[in-house]
Amino acid sequence: GPRVSGDSPQEIKEYLEKQLAQVTGLESVKGMLRSLCRKMVVDQQRAKFGFVNQQNLNMLFLGNPGTGKTSMARVVAKLLKHMGVLKRGHLVEVSRKDLVAEYSGQSAVKTVAKVQEALGGVLFVDEAYSLKHQDAKDSFGQEVVDTLVAEMENRRSELVVICAGYTKEMGDFLRTNSGLQSRFPNVFDFPDYTYPDMAEIFTRMAEERKLRVDPKLSKDRLVELMAQSIPRSVASRGNARAVRNLVETVLTRQTDRVADKGTVSMASLLTLQEEDFPAVGDGAAAGAAGGPPGTPG
Questions:
Q1: What value does the mean pLDDT take over residues 179-189?
Q2: Would the pTM of this model clear 0.90, i.e. be above it?
């Protein structure tokens, strides 16, 4: 069986908190992960006294695209490695195109190969509902699903599978194989980011590029600028992506502003100011995120 981690429950908890601190928002998901972690720690302690741990750690991550599911899957992989549940703790990301082949029998081969690659870590199946098309007789997709179920069964001590996708479509997907539902007991709902979350993500993305948000901009004002620049209708189609596009738009406007000034200090080259955000109604705001302006909800 998997080795038992030598770390104290306190140390494991601190390790998890350090990882979670790097992920914006998602408090409900973090809470569920904390409680799963506590249960695993207790099970590891029980195992010392002969308790047979048969806990299934496969997970469903439900929600819209761009809501931090991949980042959270990385946290899970690191945590499970840290706790000695997984040997390598790497993340292998796949979607339909990586698993479905064009000839009969080949999809099973591709799927087994990806499972092999993920052994000792986490296999993250994004948009998992697209593996099996609902309407048509999608025999290659069915082959992938059936192979995945069999592999999960045979390799259950060496692999954790996380399937991600929209809530409704994932419900339909679980019905494509009677064994699927029971194999994913840990269900996490990923809410859309709020505007305060987006403000935090904006600051983080800017900092990754060595830019900074003008310290004169209050947190509350930055949140207002998010709501102004990213209509709700756009936000729900890929939250983090909308923020990334906004960083680009703001940087472009900042570049134009700085370019007109001639020689400028390093600070002004790297600082994003309020005037660099697209003004309400100037079209760039909605355009930045690729869609008609909606009413922020």
A1: 91
A2: no
